[in-house]
Amino acid sequence: xxxxxxxxxxxxxxxxxxxxxxxxxxxxxxxxxxxxxxxxxxxxxxxxxxxxxxxxxxxxxxxxxxxxxxxxxxxxxxxxxxxxxxxxxxxxxxxxxxxxxxxxxxxxxxxxxxxxx
Length: 117
Description:
This protein is an all-alpha fold. Helix content is 89%, strand content 0%.
């Protein structure tokens, strides 16, 4: 009876792990799609920020030093540059997939990676 109970426990854990792996994979796919979309839209986002700043400045009707304005816009663009963060996110997604394929007791590693994500 004890061996049967252990076998049932193992089977339940395996089934639960398989279902969780499927859910995690679905979310990883969503994250990857969002990252791809965001990378494609970054030039548009930066341009929109630049246009918004120009519009606000035009509303002020103030004479501004063009060189200083370009420096400020460069700073804004630099702050909007999230390529490094997107690269890290891609790396974490790949690592989660690698860990899931590895199998076995991976809960602690996945917990760490979820925090990173």
